[in-house]
Structure prediction request, 485 residues.
Amino acid sequence: MDFPFYPSNDFGPLMKGMVIGGVGILHVFLAQFAIGGGILLCVFQWLAMTGRSKLAREFVDGYFRWVVLISFVLGALTGVSIWLTTIQISPRTIGLMVQEFHWLWATEWTFFCLEVASGYAFYRYGKVLPDRTRLGLRMSYSIASWMSLFWINGILSWQLTPAGWLEHRTVWSGFFNPSFWPSLLFRTITALAEAGLFACLIINLATNWTREQKQTMLHRAFYFLAPMALMPLVGAWYFAVVPDDSRRWVMGESVAMTMFMTLGVGASMLIGAYAVVMLVNRRNFINAMTSLVLIVLAVGATAGGEFVREGMRKPYTVRNVLYSNSITEADAAEMRCNGGAARDPYPLKNEASIPNEQLRLGAKVYRMQCSICHTEEGANGLLGLVRTWTPSQVRLNIAQLQRTKPFMPPFAGTAAELEALVQWLAWREAGNPTDWEVSAEPEVLKTIQGHLDEVGTVSGIALMQQNEAAARIRHQDERNQKGSR
Ligand code: HEC
Prediction:
């Protein structure tokens, strides 16, 4: 099969993966708040209607609904931005997601339309409608927004744990994958907690309420943080169903991942601790400043959580199907024989300033295989990573990329393409001189071919598992020998 090349965009010093990640984190935070906020408005509307709280009516008609509206609009805009960035960065992955799940996307968009319609109807006519209709609209908004999370969640969690789908290839075996329920639960708990925290901020800003009145309302809002008590359990469930290697990236094998995991867990624990303090004693108060600090912590926790979730999938965008650079294992094997980047029909941005054909090929190899996770000199910059290595070290470590770091995909190309990449890196490191000699030593290419053949195109994860199995057998043999002696 011919490899599907697409034109892709370049974000300079910003790593492509981080561009998606950044937009994603913003979107997740806003969209989750819009869901939790909708549910909170329902509950408070109900409190008002049943006469349980007179203040609740003031609250639901006050600023909070504007905050929900704004986050809903921004959530929708950032949602569209995710499509816009992913098609510039990872079109093949997005294509696969659309192809496999188009009816589910359509269902999700239907719920999104219902969400927009009921939200709009409420803001346009809410004031003149009777209470029951108002509650009906709020419920329709909340259910629709939670349902859109439900559908998206299935498709996103499939990317990490598609094992059942790989076997059965049915839509539902992909959708209800092992990480579906824990991640849906986790996101729902987060949505409620975010809503509770924003409610605290808004309650504090009310100018016509006494401290006692605020206190009563703050405690009502804090009930939305109570489900956080389940987070450790749901988190443990999630980590129990994700693949072994993914867990290992988080548990110390990848420094950045471990750091973000710690950030996420730490920030959540601080928020949780504060919730406990508030919920055990009705006399405790939380002021606007503290609410704001907790909201910032919640942003941190979301960022940490999303970074970890995305990063855990490495080296895949869809586990065991597509590598992060949208190349399959079969593509990689085929490209070792027939070449990969050399077939890329799309021109380079700065083609004219690159002095020879080999360097141009090298730049294409970088663009096709590495640029999703590396930049040239910015975030995770490749030039910096290889700066202290000798050329033969660079050749070895790139030829055996999946052994260098098991969360990188194997090199997908010929020895000549690899040498082109090495030359391009050296040329960039030298400051893009106008003259550069072509490297064509048969000995060098032979050495690279040897390195490539040694590990083949199996994933780093498979390689890691093979090594560990071999080590276990060796260990067992040693013990048997000792025993027989
Ligand atoms: C799935 C994402 C991903 C892809 C694709 C990827 N890398 Fe990496 N690479 C990483 C990460 C993450 C690191 C770790 C950086 C660190 O340790 O600070 C890394 C580290 C490296 C290192 C340093 C290794 C070390 O031991 O210090 C080199 C060299 C490197 N990559 C080269 C490449 C090249 C060349 C390509 C393309 C052929 C590539 N990478 C593709 C994610 C990726």
Observations:
- The chain has two domains: 16-322, 327-470.
- The chain has 21 helices and two strands.
- Residues 16-322 form a domain with the Formate dehydrogenase/DMSO reductase fold fold (CATH 1.20.1630).
